[in-house]
Amino acid sequence: MTCTTTPAPRALTLAAWRDYDEDACTLPGMSLGELDLAGPPEKHAARLWELGVRRVRIAEEVDLSTVGDPDGDPDAAAHVVRQLCLIRDLTAHAVLVQWQLRLPAGPADGWCELSHLQPPRTLSGPADEAAALSRWQGEHYLCKCLWRQGPGFVQIRDRRWGHLRRFTTDEPAYRKAIGQLSYGAPLSDVPEAIAADFLEERLVSRTGPLLWWLPYRVNRWIQEAMAI
């Protein structure tokens, strides 16, 4: 009898500091060193915030150019999804994230799907990389694409495309699907009609065999919640 085991997920490693300001981060006691994140991914951002982390640097490039094939390496796709979900959650906590992104060759606006995330330090893939990165940096703000849970409903507010797009649902199946997709799930795990709706509105991203939820549940409001 042959026994097989599922390999453990690759660790997410980042350098962390207690302040947003780069100069302040050089002072004694401001660096928390390199941290290896383990355990449930939904807890990572909150734990970092509670540790006092306000600035992080992810040295490993997030490479979406090699994980687009649905029949490709599922472990590589899952690792990239974990990286992007961490950046999404840290953005929601208003933690400054320094990271690098490589996109596959494609539409000039392919980066816009991720434009609610903290802008990367470097961006590879778009035809005019410098212009795309400059626009991302200049147009980014907190709460650009978020979701919130109300009493019996979920609402998504999306401004990634230059105007407000608002979606509200009170159907339990949609709320369940958001939970399933929060940190990546195979397309087959979600009802086909719901997955199609989310894909049409670009509220989920397809990374290899996985779909993952793009909007974040904001933790730091930039103004009164009713104005968002």
Task: Please explain how this structure is put together.
The protein has 228 residues and is α/β, with parallel strands linked by helices. It folds into two domains: 12-139, no CATH class; 145-227, no CATH class. Helix content is 25%, strand content 24%. A hairpin with a 2-residue loop joins strand 12 (204-207) and strand 13 (210-213). The chain is globular, with a radius of gyration of 18 Å.
In summary, what is this structure?
This protein is of the alpha/beta class and 228 residues long. Helices cover 25% and strands 24% of the residues. A hairpin with a 6-residue loop joins strand 9 (153-158) and strand 10.
Could you give the topology of this structure?
Blueprint: E1 12-17, E2 31-37, H1 44-50, E3 55-57, E4 62-63, H2 74-92, E5 96-98, E6 100-102, E7 122-124, H3 129-139, E8 145-150, E9 153-158, E10 165-169, H4 172-181, E11 185-186, H5 192-200, E12 204-207, E13 210-213
Parallel strand pairs: 3-5, 4-6, 6-7
Antiparallel strand pairs: 1-2, 1-3, 8-9, 9-10, 11-13, 12-13
